[in-house]
Each structure stands twice: as C-alpha cells, then as structure tokens.
Amino acid sequence: EALAELLLSIDKQRPGNFEIIIVDNGCLLETQQVIERASVPYKYLPLCDNPGYAMGNNAGVALAAKSSRWVLFLNDDVVLSDEDFIQNMVHLGDAQNNAVAVGCKLLTAAGDEIIEAGSIIWSNGGATGFGRGRRDIEAPDLSYPKPVDYVSGACLMIDKLVFTNRGGFDKNFPNYYEDTDLQMYIQHELGKEVWLQPLAVARHDEHGSFGQKDSVTLMQKASKTFITKWQAIILEHHIHAPFTLTKYEQDVEHLRASDVRARNPTKANILYLDTLIPNKTKGSGYGRAFDNIAMIATLGHRVTVVSQVPATSEWCNAICRSEIVSLGVELVTSSWESLVDSRIGFYDIVIVSRPTTFEATYAKLCDFMTKSTFVLVYDCEALWYRRDEKLFTIEKEGTIHFPSSREFTTSTMDLLVMGQRNVEVSLLSMADEIVPVSEAEAKIISKIYPQSRVTVVGHVMGLDRITKSTFHERSGILFLASFGGDMYYNGDAIWYFITAIYPLVLKESPSPINLTIAGREIPDLLRTYVQKTDFYQFVTFIESPIITDNLFDQARIFIAPHLYGAGIQYKVSEALSVGLPVVMSNETAEGFGLPFANEDISCIGYNTESFKNCIIIVHSNELIWNKLRDTAVNFIRKTHNRDEVMYQWSKIIQNGLNPTSLARKKKHCISKLNLEYPSGPCLEGEKLYKALYKDMSEHIHHFQSMFEHWAKFGRSEGRKYICET
C-alpha cells in the first residue's frame, strides 16, 4: 500500500523532464503486483537478493539517463504531499550555486508532526532531526531554505555527477548512515552544501521498511562505523549536544545547530527589523530593504526578518512572503518582541531600518542589550527630519503651498521639525554603525557625531530590464511613486507639477504631451483636482500597477519634480536603470550627488521654467533623448553596482563580528538612552496631532484628548505628539 501511494503521488506531479526508476530490493510478490499496476512509466530493476539501501540505490543510479543532472532517492514508505514537490526540489538545487544535495521537510505518516526539517550532527556523533515531535509544522524556523548537516535518505536529491564520481553510497553502510556519510563527504571533502527545501513536504511512515526493532539495531551498528570514520571532523566543526542545559538554552542551541551558517564563526546571525515586511512592490524604501536582505543572505549569513507592525496578508501576500523566504531567509510574522525574548544570546547583529522603526523599538532593544551581546546597525535610510525642514522652509517663504502642510501654523511646523530632529539625532547615538543611502547625508551624520561609524549603502539596480522601445515608439510623461493615500512628499511633488508646470508644458508644446500618474493608493485629491481642469483628458491615473515594465517601456520621460526630500528616490534609480530619461528637480539631483548643471545624466529643472523647458526639449529631441538614455544607463552601471553594495554590507557585518565593536554597545546599554516624550496633554500637541492624522476626526469622541490616543496607541504606531519644552 505504501509503494502504491508513493507512485500515485509521483503521478500527480506537474509535468516535467524526469524519469522513474524502481529498484526492487527483495522481489516480494506483493511488491511486484503493485509495480505492475502502476500508471506511471518506469524503469524496473529487480534485486531479489536484497543488497540493502546503499547498494540498491547505487545500482539504480546506473540506469539513469546520461543527460540527467539530479537524482532523487525516495523510500517506498514516503508520500509526496503536493504536485510541486519535484519542481521545488530542483528549483532550490539550481538556485543555490554551492548546493549539490537537497532534502525535504518530512512529516509523520499522519502529516501532523515533524520528523525532521533538516538534521543535526552533534560533536559526539549523535544526531537529531530538527523540529522532531513538533506540531507547529509551519513555524518560521522550520519553513525557510537553509544549509544543514544532513537530510534523511528517505528523501534525498543529489547531483548525479557528484554521486557517481564518489562511487555512490559507501557499501560499509548498507542500510543506515549511508546518507549521512555521503553528505559529510559533500561538505567536508568537496566543500559543497546540503540544503533543506521546506516547500517540498513529504509524509513518511518511519521505519516502515524494516520495523522499529530491527531499525534500531541496524542504526546503532551503523552509528559506530560513522563516528569512527568522521570523529575528527565532527569534533572540529560541530557543536556540543545541549541536552544538559536548560530548556530555553537547548532551544537556542538547537536553532543554532539547525542552520550551518548560524554556527560558522565567519558568518553572522542577523535580525533584520523594519516597520513592515519588505514588500519590494510597495515602494517607500521597501524595494531597497528587500535588496539589502537578499545581498546579506547571498554573502552567506543567517538572517531573520521581522516587522515592528504586525504582518498582514494585505501588505505582503503569500507570493511576497515566498519571495523573501526563497532567499534562504527566516521570515517571522508574529510579535517581534516575543521573538527577541525567545532568542537571547542568538543574534550577533541587529539591523534596524528607518527612524520610525527605531524610535518605536529602541526601549525593548536596549533591554535586549542587557541580556544579549550583539552589535546594533541602524539603517536610517535617510534623515527624515530634513524632508520636513525643507518642506516648511518653502511654506514659510510663501511661494508654494503644498496640500500636505497648508493647515499647519508656523509654530506647528517648527515644533514638528524640532521634535523629529531631536528624535533622529538621539537615535544616531545609540547605533554601533549607521547606514544612510547617500553620501550627502553621510557627511551630515558625521558632522553631528564625528565619532560615529558611517557606511553608505545605496540602491542596487541591475541592467537586465533595459526597455526596448525606441524614441518614436514612445510618448508621454510618467510619474510613478508610492503615495499611501497621503499627499505628503510624492503627492506634493506631482501636485506641484500639475498645478505649476504641466499647464505650461501643454501651452508651449507643439502637440499635447500625455501624463500618466501611477502608484499605490493615489490620493483622491489629485483625481478631483485633475477632473476640474481643462487638461483632464491628457492625464491617466493607474492605481497600484502590478507590473511596471510596460509603463517604463511606453513613456518617453520620467519625472521627479520633488522640491523637498531626503536620501535618494528608488523609483528614479529604477527609471534610469531601464533607460528611461529622467527630468528631475534640483532637490532630486542633489540627493543623487549629481554635479551642478550636469545635463549628461538627466535634464535638471532648477525652477518651474527650466523644468518645463526640459520636458519639451527631451520629449521632442531624439538626439538628446538617446544621449540621456545612454549616459543614464552608464551612470547606474557605475553607481548602483550590486557587487560594490554587497562589499559595503560585507564590511559592515565584519565590523559587527569584530569583538572590539561590543564595547560601545555596552556603554549604550547601561546609559539607556531616553527620548523626551510628553507626560501629559498640551495645547500644541493636541493641534499637531489633529493636523497630522486626519483619521482622528473619526475617533475623537472615544478619547478625552489626542494625548490619550497617542499614549495608548499612537506612540507604538510611530505617530508624533510633541509639546514645547
């Protein structure tokens, strides 16, 4: 029955380029009857003298097609759980350059309990299936791809050339430990890796082939042979069995042992904490966050990703989560505070991304520091207070009134900037290393804290998406951004464009130039305004486009008309990388560090008039358009190079692994940096809170004051309530 169920589960696999070889050890009549009824095509090898697992599989591999790369060994008491099983195994093997063996997540025959999610070899030669006996089979630590000591031979895929060059399984291990022995050879003699693929799940009737009693006897005999052969290497490379420690300490040590990277002294265990799960499609810096995580994982470090705000499927759906996990990264969607409480002593480095995340978590992180030794890296991305400083400077000058700030009084503006600046500057002092996105902001940080260690990590852009359409196959202007339903920043930028620049473009251009405004949660105010204009027919709104390549390929110009900001705009980098010429404001150009009046990379609009002229010239002149396209691609090739950015991350992490980095952190921990927060309501705080957060008009009757809402909910959500001191 077991073999019949296995063959049926193979028959249900998605069509693929694979063959089935059945090795019949023993030639029992019942087995032959099942094989004869099989509906799948197969090669059949009867070995009626039953030479054992090792020799039987060696003989079976000899029948495999010469063109095949992988061989998947399956016990006859295993059942593949879904139709993507083989596809997932092969995909991981192909994706991980150093992997030559892959195993699956094994469950009990009932499918409700873990047998192993990869297995551990301790320094005494003992072995443990990671997660064995647990019923939380979808837990994060059991559900991400990772390099492991070994995987069960009941479900083992291996590079055929590696297998045959070695001579297959060692005949000195006829029925147990032959799989473990082979995987020790892969890691310690070939210098290659064995990976767990948790997306491939199989149910296993453990010991079904021999029965419980005979299995234990055979296993004990093979264990002695294994330890004798590999003892020296096991003592050097594997950690001590933790079974005499407390339950808490055992859990941490099992976690460390379950991922080969986690116990490698040259690699780091890293906790990456952001406001939300880094969904690269959402904008707002999350594309850069995803790239950073991918690069750190590629460098061979073990990474846990967790969000400060509870994860939701609306923000990051199953596809989004799968993309993160497929990097070989653990994704935790439960409470970040519970996570750090359960892993004291585990992480070497904690990376906190964004000022709002750091502000909301610093108190807990400081408490974590008193219990656990780690280095704190603050990926500030940008100095956000500078964005508001520039915005309110423009407002005070009275030349432009942006929708996002027109309800603020001068005193409210000053209060908001002062409060945000104090918070961000204070947070800088808590980090062992600070990571901004631009050289300009790195210089500012170094002036604020000359003793700080600052490393710039910019955007990464490949050149594999360069658009194909020629100048004459395109038309129109594209503005693509993340709005989040708010006019602040991106909303203000396109507001300035459609109110001050676009009417001039339409007036002076020989023919109308269409405008496309695309992005996530476009504010209704923009649509309402455009509908009331006499150019509404030339403007198209595209809400939350899933694919943006077609937008880049159809537009002739990308615009970045921002008059205030901080850091570097990811979408501008993206536009340049796909070969779409950009017309940008002077503010945007300064963020990129472009030299004054550098018209080779982008046409820069220093004011309304010159921005309008840039659009008309670039949109109408094929020679200039092609020149900007070529120089933009070359600029990205030099400044957004993945290898260079990975090198910066490697330096940051090596600094974190350096024991001398710990002294500063201990000082911060003892001092417990205190941010100044109001202890009660104040008039200016009440006004500011109402002005900043429009949703409070719906909840105002539920609270005695805005301060009450902030104290109960707003502070943890990153909202601002500021009183003059």
From TrEMBL:
<protein>
    <recommendedName>
        <fullName>Glycosyltransferase 2-like domain-containing protein</fullName>
    </recommendedName>
</protein>
<dbReference type="InterPro" id="IPR001173">
    <property type="entry name" value="Glyco_trans_2-like"/>
</dbReference>
<feature type="domain" description="Glycosyltransferase 2-like">
    <location>
        <begin position="2"/>
        <end position="104"/>
    </location>
</feature>
<dbReference type="InterPro" id="IPR029044">
    <property type="entry name" value="Nucleotide-diphossugar_trans"/>
</dbReference>
<dbReference type="Pfam" id="PF13692">
    <property type="entry name" value="Glyco_trans_1_4"/>
</dbReference>
<dbReference type="Pfam" id="PF00535">
    <property type="entry name" value="Glycos_transf_2"/>
</dbReference>
